[in-house]
Amino acid sequence: MKIGLEVHVGLPTKTKLFCRCKAYATEPNTAICPICTGLPGAKPMLNKKALELSVDISNALNCTIEKETSFVRKVYFYPDLPKSFQITQKDMPVGHSGTLKINNKVIGIRRIQLEEDPAKILREDNYTLIDYNRSGQPLVEIVTEPDITSEDELRVFMNELKSILYYLGVDVDQDIKADLNISLSDSRVEIKNVTGLKNLIDAAKYEIQRQEKLIKEKQKISQETRSYSEAKLSTISSREKESDEEYGFIFEPDLTTYSLQSIKPKEPVYVSEIAKEYSKKYHVNESQLLEIISFDKTSLKIIQSFAGKYEMKSILNAILSFKRYGKSELKEKFIEKAIKLIEKGSYLDGEVISALEKGKEININNNVVNTDEIDSEIRSIINKNKQLLEDYKTNKKAMNSVIGMVLKKFKTNPRIISERLEYILSNEFKV
Ligand SMILES: [Zn+2]
After folding, report:
1. Ligand 1 mean position to 119 CA, how many Å?
2. Distance 33 CA to ligand 1 centre (A)
3. H helical segments located in 189-237
4. 367 pLDDT band (50/70/90 cuts)?
5. Based on the structure, what is the number of domains in the chain?
């Protein structure tokens, strides 16, 4: 199986790629000008910030960055493109021949290019609306080699890519759009314009199953373009594949070539490498650490500044407790207080976190417990009384007796036992 991707990432610049209109405006057709609506004689000017971001991304994905980059016109006729061409890149993209490492495997990055988004088309029953606000929004297109060989790898790759982009200041989240190429045989099937990570994985899953079935039935898989339907959870044949040759490409005479040599790229952050290193060094769970830091600059900063000073387990515990109960943003000074409480044996529940946030003094005596001991007592009681789990499904109070039983053994705050019980029930017994 071979899966390749073309990922489209909107860049967070203030203005559009070739004009000074606001890049992201909500009221339709309010951020437009002669350049982004393609009026005769209007000349584009390249957005410097967009160029710099595309260099940051190319550098983070280990691409070769040549001395210069230039643009072409991709000519096609469609209402979303008033000039009849899209300004994009072809032979001199910002970056090419890069790599991204996932789980000890290398995924090739073929090219990274800058281009403008066309306008947005909204089709209604008997009329069509066009919003030119989107016309000229800056996009980076990241094209991979067909090196991804499973749905799972696709998920890991996309998460890693999104995290790298997040740390470069390009937070894409649900807006990420991609075209998927999936071939289980000699025929390459392309699925166009899938939005969001969940849909991307679902589309891949469906398409892999569809092709597997055809192969099993000894039917031919046709080379085609399909689209993904979120409502039907399936892919549908949309049109015959267009090749690059069917578009007209000409050099963009209104733009010059741009030097890339003077741009100093931003240092990339690879969270999976950090998670691997820290989990080895400080004996903590790698996937838990990765989940905490993948899209959270503040947590990463706190972890890096406290590493070595406190137990990593306590640092992570403090961060997770704040994320669970905290009302405000994570702050280093609160986390440090929380770590100290944890290291004294205190359990951080909602009340302790709220007191910490308000700067109140905390009487930790009530909360000094060994949760491992409490957890194992809870597990053993439930395992001895399996009927409790059945009762609990219809009556949430059925577990109250467990709290009483644990309290007999440990003189502690019942709220903590109740919380641990809830955690164990949902995470271990899945009820
Ligand atoms: Zn404009």
Report:
1. 12
2. 4
3. 197-216
4. low
5. 3
Distance 62 CA to ligand 1 centre (A): 33
Q: What is the pLDDT of residues 58-104, one digit of tens each?
A: 999 999 999 999 999 999 888 888 899 999 999 999 999 999 999 88
Host domain of residue 158: 2-259
Ligand 1 mean position to 141 CA, how many Å? Answer: 21
Distances (CA, A) of 217 to 68, 223, 306: 51, 17, 58
Phi, psi (5° rounding) for residue 105? -120, 145
Q: Are residues 333 and 377 in the same domain?
A: no
Please give the distance, rounded to the nearest whole angstrom, from the Cα atom of residue 49 to the centre of ligand 1. 16
Nearest C-alpha neighbor of 115 from the set 178, 204, 32, 50 = 50
Same domain for 252 and 301: no
CA of 171 to the centre of ligand 1 (A): 23
CA of 42 to the centre of ligand 1 (A): 10
Contact by Cβ (8 Å): 144, 108: yes
Residue where a domain stops, chosen among 332, 350, 367:
367
How far, in Å, is the centroid of ligand 1 from the Cα of 293? Answer: 37
Total-model pTM? 0.85
What is the reported pLDDT for 86?
Answer: 95
DSSP character string of 274-322: HHHHHHHHHT--HHHHHHHHTT-HHHHHHHHHHBTTB-HHHHHHHHHHH
Ligand 1 centre to CA of 126 (Å) is: 29
Looking at residues 35-46, what average pLDDT do you find? 94
Residue 266 located in a structural domain:
no
CA of 218 to the centre of ligand 1 (A): 52
